Each structure stands twice: as structure tokens, then as C-alpha cells.
Amino acid sequence: MTYQSRIESLKSRHSRIDKKISSEGGRPRPDERVLMCLKLQKLRLKEEIERLST
Q1: pTM for this one?
Q2: 7, 8, 49, 53: least buried by Cβ within 10 Å?
Q3: Collapsing DSSP states into helix, strand and coil, what is residue 31?
Q4: Tens digit of pLDDT per residue, the chain (54 long)?
Q5: pLDDT score at 7
Q6: Phi, psi of 29 (to 5 degrees)
Q7: Residue 39 and residue 8: Cα distance in Å, rounded?
Q8: What are the Cα distances from residue 17, in Å, to 1, 13, 44?
Q9: For residue 46, which of 21, 13, 4 has the smallest C-alpha distance?
């Protein structure tokens, strides 16, 4: 897998997690543990994308 395809894959996962965060946050009583876990995953993906992009 090339760097560019890896980055695109990570961006796709990042986008899916962002949608899950929005969905969970839009619930009447969002699960804070789930949100925290999703946000941490999103942050890790962002960091890896930035690392590979430099």
C-alpha cells in the first residue's frame, strides 16, 4: 500500500468516525464513554494522517 492510499484510507475512517460522533451526540442522552472513545480514535487517526503527510 502506498503512502497516498494509506492516507486516503485513514481519511475515510476519520470521516466515518466523525459521522458516528455526530450521530451519538445528536441523541437525547448521548453515552459520554462512547463519545470519548470515538473522539480518541479520531484524534489518533488525525495524528497518523499528519505524520504520514509530512
Answers
A1: 0.88
A2: 53
A3: coil
A4: 788 999 999 999 999 999 999 999 999 999 999 999 999 999 999 999 999 998
A5: 95
A6: -130, 80
A7: 19
A8: 22, 6, 11
A9: 13
**Residues with Cβ < 8 Å from 48, sequence gap 6 or more?**
10
User: C-alpha grid cell for residue 42?
Assistant: 479520531
| Grid cell locating 39 | 473522539
Q: What is the per-residue pLDDT for 54?
A: 84
pLDDT for 1 equals 73
User: What is the helix (H) or strand (E) element at residue 43, kind and residue range?
Assistant: helix 32-53
CB 35, CB 21: distance < 8 Å: yes
Distance of CA 15 to the CA centre of its chain: 6
Residue type, 44: R
The amino acid that residue 33 corresponds to is R
The 3-class secondary structure across 11-22, one letter per residue, is HHHHHHHHHHHH
